[in-house]
Amino acid sequence: MDYLDLRDLAQELYDLVDMKNTDALSEEDAARLEMLLDLQGQLPTETLSEYAENESTMLPEYRFTDYAQELAGEKGYTTRDSHNPLDDYIDWDGWADDLKHDYTEVTFNGEPYFIRAY
Predict the structure, then answer these.
(1) Distance CA 49, CA 8 (A)
(2) Under 8 Å CB-to-CB from 36, ≥6 apart: which residues?
(3) Which of 28, 80, 104, 113 pairs as cysteine with 117 (C-beta 3.0–4.6 A)?
(4) 38-50: b or e for each residue (b if 16 or more CB lie within 10 Å)?
(5) What is the pLDDT of residues 15-69, one digit of tens each?
(6) What three-state secondary structure class fits 90?
(7) Percentages helix, strand, coil for the chain, rounded to the nearest 5?
(8) What is the pTM (predicted TM-score) of this model?
(9) CA-to-CA distance for 107 and 115, rounded, in angstroms?
(10) Where in the chain are the domains?
(11) 98 CB-contact burial (10 Å; exposed 0-12 / middle 13-18 / buried 19+)
(12) How many of the other CB atoms lie within 10 Å of CB of 19?
């Protein structure tokens, strides 16, 4: 899946701030820094790295239903190794919508993502 790792983004933010302090920031880097600062501002913690200590994975919205289905298998709610005919009758979109109550929605690079809320 195309998940993003907040630990990587936090490190990138740290590096870009350091580059900004030494006046070594390109226009592209400055735009990326702005995106990361915007993301950080959407979280209920002071910094990206603080939030990443509890949950590091950002899930893209367009893959959230797939994630919900994988999670159900990991938790043992459904079988993962062989096809269970009942899986075809599960409302995976509904299950995903219910799961979203436990996640914080953020926007990064113009795209919606979900991060587990703590």
Answers:
(1) 9
(2) 9, 12, 13, 16, 48
(3) 104
(4) ebbeebeeeebbe
(5) 999 998 888 889 999 999 999 999 999 998 889 999 999 888 999 999 999 999 9
(6) coil
(7) 60, 15, 25
(8) 0.86
(9) 11
(10) 4-116
(11) exposed
(12) 15
